Every structure is written in C-alpha cells, then in structure tokens.
Amino acid sequence: MIQEEEYKKRRDKLSKKLLNYSVGIISASSYKTRSNDTQYPYRQNSNFYYLSGFKEDNTALVFVKRKKSIKTILFVQAKDKVQELWNGKRLGEKKAKKRFLVDEVYTMREFDSKLKEFIGAAKNLYYDFDSEDKSVQLLKPYVKAIQTNKNIAPLIHKMRLIKSSAEIQEIKKAIHITKKAHHQAMNFSKIGKKEYMLQAEIEYTFKSHGAYSDAYTSIVACGNSANTLHYIENNRALVENALILIDAGCEYDYYASDITRTIPVSGQFTQPQKELYNMILEVQLKIIKMVKPHAKRSDLQQKAQELLCRGMLELKILKGNYKKLMKKEAYKKYYPHGIGHWMGIDVHDEAPYKDENGNEIAFAKGMVLTIEPGIYIDKDDKKVPKKYRGIGIRIEDDILVTKRGYKNLSAKIAKSVKEIESISSDRKL
Ligand code: GLY
Ligand code: MN
Ligand code: MN
User: Fold this and answer.
1) What is the pLDDT of residues 197-252, one digit of tens each?
2) Using a 6 Å cutoff on CB, does residue 334 contact ligand 1?
3) Looking at residue 369, what DSSP letter applies?
4) Rounded Cα distance, 260 and 343, in Å
5) Closest atom of ligand 1 relative to the 216 alpha carbon
6) What distance in Å separates the CA atoms of residue 280 and residue 308, rounded to the nearest whole number?
7) Helix %, strand %, coil % for the chain, to 5?
8) How far apart are CA 399 and CA 288, in angstroms?
C-alpha cells in the first residue's frame, strides 16, 4: 500500500519541474464504452493514479504555480444520492479534504469557474496532449489565450522510471499472485480442455487472491497458436504432445506483473521441445545476469540476438555462417521482438527509454523490466527440422535493478523443465 505522504512527495516533485506562472492539469480516465450502453470495467489513468492513488472517475488534479507559491488542488465528484445509488459511493469533498494531502479540494461542478481564476495569471499551461478526458476538453477554450502549452505526461513518465520501495512491494504482491496462477495452470492442463478453460483458471486465481484485474489480456496459446505473438482468442483445444505458451499476469493495486511460461499439455516435454526450451532458457538466464546499474537494454538486445542465433544454428533451425546470418538479421524470422520493457503501473510502463538528448537511458537501481526471449516456428516452415515445427516458446520474468546487480522478482515461478514437470506430475486429473 502506498501512503498519502508518498503521493504528496510525487506531486511536490512534479510541481518543482513546472515553470513559474504555470497551471498544470492531470485528469482521471473516463469510462470507455464497450457497446451501446455497456462499459468496460473502469481503470484509472496511470499518471493520475501515480500522483493521487485516487480511483474515482471524473476527477482532476490541478497545479497552480506562481512565482514563489505552488498550490495543488484536487477536484472530486460531488456527492449525489441518485448517481451513487446506480454507480456506487463517491468519496465526496469532505472526506477528500481529510484523505488527500493537497492544498485545496473542490467538486468538479466548480472546475470551470476555478480554472478561469487560476489561468488568469498563468503563462504556461501543462496538460496531457493525448488525453481525451473531460477536464482536458474543458481546457481547450483557454489553450489559445495562454502563451505556451506543454505536455505534462513526459514529466510524470520520467518519474515513473524509478520505483520506490512501496511500489516494489506492490509489484512483488502482483507477481506472488501470478505465480499461483501459473502453477495452477501447470496443474490444470489436460488434453481435450480448451485454452480458455486454462485462462479462466488463471484469472480465477488472480481474483480469488485479491487481484481485481489482469494487467493485460492473457495469452493461452497451444501448439501453433503460440506463433501468433498477440494471440488472445484462446479458443482452441489442448492437444497431445503440444506446448502451451501462457503469457498472463495480474494487476494488484494498480501494479502489473508480466510473466510467460511455456508448458507441456501432458505435463512432460518431448525431446525436441526440451532441446528448444533449454536453449531459450539458457539465453534468458544469461541475459538476466547482464542486468545491473549502467547496463543498457540495447546491449541485452544485441546479446540475446547473438545467443539465439548461435542456439538456432546449433539446432539447425538456421543454417549457414554465423557472421553472415547475424548481418542479415536472419534470427529475426524466429525471434522478432524486443528482449523486454519497463514494467510498473502499466505492463509496458510509460517510462522513457531515451533521455532529453536522445541518448539511451542506462539501468539504475529501482527500475523494473522484463526479460523475455522467445522463438516461434510456424507449423508449415519447411526450412526448419520437422521436429521443431509448430512450436512457439517464450520465457519471461520480471527483474528489479538493484544497487549492484539485479533481483529476479519472479524467480519462484517454476521454470526449468524439471520444475515444470514436477508441478505437473502432482496433477489431480
Ligand atoms: N504481455 C505483454 C508482453 O509480454 O510484453
Ligand atoms: Mn512483457
Ligand atoms: Mn508478457
């Protein structure tokens, strides 16, 4: 749980970055329509949540910076008996004043008039250029009257790069629940079941342990389905002698986990599956070991490409001269994606990869990233030995950069052939 003081510290840090005579606005997400009059479950805007920890829609944070003074103002939904009967309780102005360590609290009914007042003396207007939310729309009439408009989002994204110890605790909780879900999948898999049945077990496990949502749509891909990177249909049957690629992670208290395990339907890897799996696992372990302060993601990417290319040559998935294959980027056919990404409030955390000068940002203590090499071989790829066709494998863990190196936060999720087979062998079929 993140304390109110920490949210306040984040707001203070952000307000220091704003120029004098500025107004900055960051607003809550709106509900998104699924179809006609039904809506997707509500998810707060990540930047707004990062600065407030407040989960209600139709709310906004405003920073008013004059020459010497900075004021933080929160706008909340007014109490409304009818609305609350249909859509749930609102915190309201009074309780918000007690809870949030902001300077002033008003209701959204006052937003427009207060905004006029704040904007009067401002020279700069900061808002999220990509936001379509109501409070940002309300700003639009003022935009032209102000001298400069600035995007507030990148300032917050930069702050989100380094996780506090409270944030790391939240991520650890998410991963702990995700561990249970993956182990449950290893236990539950059986020939004849459908991919979505495994997905349901995984997501039931998330919810039953207090993770209200997944952090992204689960991928449960049996056999050749795994060769579609964003496969989310999850509607095929689990078949004999196939592997299942499961990329699933829960969101706990707004923090993500992002884990992939590739497991045999029957509980036992075949010999060719083992060969390919162990090659990728070895690469993953080597790349994880490279994580430490000052290392760079591009170095990890390069090394992963080299190691996977060599591994594919050894298994005769690629043929020819190593240097030539590297030059041609031949490995890309089977390993087409990145080695990993930042993770936090968003699964692909919106933190920058480059600094203001366009230079790559090196790792530093408190950053969290995924390491996720994979190989995907289509069932009809005649260039590859038959025994490997129709296999897609990815292995993904969540890694914290520490003072001297790294900590694999998901190290307890079964990963070696032996560990996976051992969990599967306990199945009650
Ligand atoms: N689950 C999305 C990813 O691995 O990046
Ligand atoms: Mn990932
Ligand atoms: Mn993933």
Assistant:
1) 999 999 999 999 999 999 999 999 999 999 999 999 999 999 999 999 999 999 99
2) no
3) E
4) 14
5) 1
6) 7
7) 40, 20, 40
8) 8
Asked if residues 257 and 175 have their Cβ atoms less than 8 Å apart, the reply is: yes
Examine domains 4-159 and 165-423 and report if their fold is the same.
no
Q: Domain ranges in the chain?
A: 4-159, 165-423
176 tagged catalytic: no
What integer pLDDT is reported at residue 106 of this predicted model? 98
Percent of the chain scored above 90 by pLDDT? 91
Q: Quick one: which atom of ligand 1 is closest to the CA of 219? A: 1
Q: Give pLDDT tens digits for 65-99.
A: 998 899 999 999 999 999 999 999 999 999 999 99
Query: Has 348 been annotated as catalytic?
Result: yes
Query: Is 4 among the residues known to form the active site?
Result: no
Q: Is residue 275 pLDDT above 80, yes or no?
A: yes
Round to whole Å and give the CA distance between 201 and 424.
Answer: 15
Question: Measuring CA to CA, how many Å separate 215 from each of 175, 383, 407?
Answer: 11, 37, 21
Domain 4-159 CATH class label: alpha beta
**Substitution site in 370, 376, 410 for ligand 1 pocket (most atoms within 8 Å of beta carbon):** 370
Q: Vertex 339, ends 337 and 345: CA angle to 5°?
A: 100
Residue 396 appears among annotated catalytic residues: yes
Question: Do 406 and 288 touch, CB atoms closer than 8 A?
Answer: yes
State if residue 133 touches ligand 1 by the CB under 6 angstroms criterion: no
Reported CATH class of domain 165-423: alpha beta
Task: Return the ligand 1 atom nearest residue 260 CA.
Answer: 4
Average confidence (pLDDT) over 18-37: 94
Tokens of 311: 């591994």
| Pairing assessment for the beta strands 243-247 and 260-264 based on DSSP bridges | antiparallel
- Probe ligand 1: pick from 372, 394, 398, 399, max atoms within 8 Å of CB? 372
pTM of the shown model: 0.96
